[in-house]
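A reminder from the course coordinator: this example appears on the midterm review sheet, so study it carefully.

Given structure:
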């Protein structure tokens, strides 16, 4: 093998490796989802025709009923509710993510705007519609950021 052929092979190999790194990097950014909101519930309210019950959640239930919303590059998704597609609307200090199928919504409020605090503080309400009954979680948002 001549030295020029060896250098050509080495150059092609380097080009191929650079190409693979770029392609894998792009694929990672296309297929990975951006977390938009993560919230921990503090209270659960179940309501139906017969009445309503309110329960303050313990640490185990709080971690079990987390709410997570992400953005997949095209749609907001309700990760903790069957990955349902959500529509975002904003009104004043509130951001509401509505499920397209009518099964519920998550409303996030920027409460720091009311308290004149420099530190952002978000609370949320997650409302699930199950036939003629509902479940509502009230809690605190740890992470919130829109594209």
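Designed residues:
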């Amino acid at each position: 093998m001549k030295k020029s052929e060896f250098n050509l092979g080495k150059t092609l190999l380097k080009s191929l490796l650079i190409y693979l790194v770029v392609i894998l990097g792009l694929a990672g950014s296309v297929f990975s989802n951006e977390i938009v909101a993560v919230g921990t519930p503090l209270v659960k309210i179940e309501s139906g025709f017969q009445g309503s019950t309110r329960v303050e959640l313990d640490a185990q239930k709080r971690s079990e009923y987390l709410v997570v919303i992400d953005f997949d590059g095209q749609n907001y998704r309700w990760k903790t509710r069957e990955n349902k597609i959500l529509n975002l609307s904003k009104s004043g200090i509130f951001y509401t993510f509505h499920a397209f199928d009518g099964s519920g919504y998550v409303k996030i409020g920027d409460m720091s705007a009311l308290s004149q605090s420099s530190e952002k503080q978000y609370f949320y309400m997650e409302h699930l519609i199950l036939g003629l009954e509902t479940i509502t979680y009230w809690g605190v948002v740890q992470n919130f950021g829109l594209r």
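Residues 41 and 139 are 4 Å apart (CA to CA). The chain has three helices and nine strands.
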